[in-house]
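Fold sample X.
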Amino acid sequence: MAGVNKVILLGNLGADPEVKHLEGDKVVANLRLATTEAYKDKTGNRVENTEWHDLELWDGQAKIAEQYLKKGMQLYVEGKIKSDTWQDEQGNNKKRIKIRVLSFTMLGGKPDGGSPSGNSGNYSNTTSSSSTPQVTEASVEDDDLPF
């Protein structure tokens, strides 16, 4: 039986993307995304819990991330869980969990406090041999979402 490995995240970037240009035209971008959930405890006090996620984007998406993504931006991400294992210099086994981004959408306005643009960009991997992502524009309305 086949399995499902799908992740959906909505959060804010904790830093500008770290982009590396590799051999040939390969490009990888690494991002840190914070997701925060809030609730009230038994005494009625508001409690916030923030999780940090390591994201990995490749090729066309990495180039878009390098050009447009900035610390503080709100991002909607769809991807899959990926793990890396290696041995450090002392021979200890290490493991890192990250999210391989398959598509993302930039939400909200500019991170520097500028006025909202009213548009978001949706960036997806394509199944064709082209590394250029599909780009579509969609209208975004301001919501009173709790997150």
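Fold sample Y, listed below.
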Amino acid sequence: MAALAFAACSSDETDGGTGGGTGGSTGTSPETPVALKVNVNEIVFNGTTLQVSIDSLDSTPVLVDYVRDPSLDVGGYLAFRVQEDALDRLFIALAKESDDGAVRAVTAADGGQFNRYFAGGVYERTGDFLPPTIGTGPGAGQVSYAGSYAAVTNVRVARGGPTDVAIDTTETGVLVPGQSSRVSGDIFLNVNFLDESINGAIYNRVLIDQSLSLADIVLVRADIAEDGTFLGSAEYDDPSNTVVGTYGGIFGGVDANSVAGLVNLEEFNDDWENEREHGVFVLTQCGPSNTLPICSSVAPFP
């Protein structure tokens, strides 16, 4: 499997790209950090259709229409794809908008070709940051969010396999572009708006196209900025607290009802080399609007 992973293009090459938000913005949404955008210049997602501008040789640096592909959906995240021809890179994107329409996020990646792959994402909020009213007592300001997680990787899907959607080609070997393997999982976040901090974990992770279980990922404590954004480190759940990447996102909606974000993992399997994962999450606050079983274990809002 390690031989199927490719190095990512340096994020330095995309710093200063145009835009970086998704569609439907009021123009006030903070910019997605370069550490999470990576190779993405701009994404326009309105909850139904998707356009992406990403630095690669296969599409000029303008917004390109992606085709909806329900066969690649992951846990409530809508899948889209684009491939110009059989020997051009195949990009897959996973996108979701919150139920209240306040936040949305998209991640995209190709599966690698010519020893490199291109990937990244954006998140966005419509409207202002509206944190919940903070009560009193030992749990003041404590809120939880839970839901599904999805990701794309630079690990290739097997050609001819059940999830292969690449354009058929008679070519083999070095010319053939890879298709990104996807990841599914669950994510849980504990947030304290009094302390202005966030932490959590991604668990039940599976590399879908290989039916391979993956390690849990811990999202270590990070500060929440005045604009409702956050950026922190991701680690393995191991005694060494091994740092494996970055996570970040944005709160939106009334009383910060929703949160959207991205995860950029520089590795996700101790036994492999050069594997990369670009994840996305769009979650609802535990409470009347989110009654997932895990939410029954947390204190009621606020």
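Sample Y note: Residues 235 and 243 are 4 Å apart (CA to CA).
Also: The chain has one domain: 2-297.
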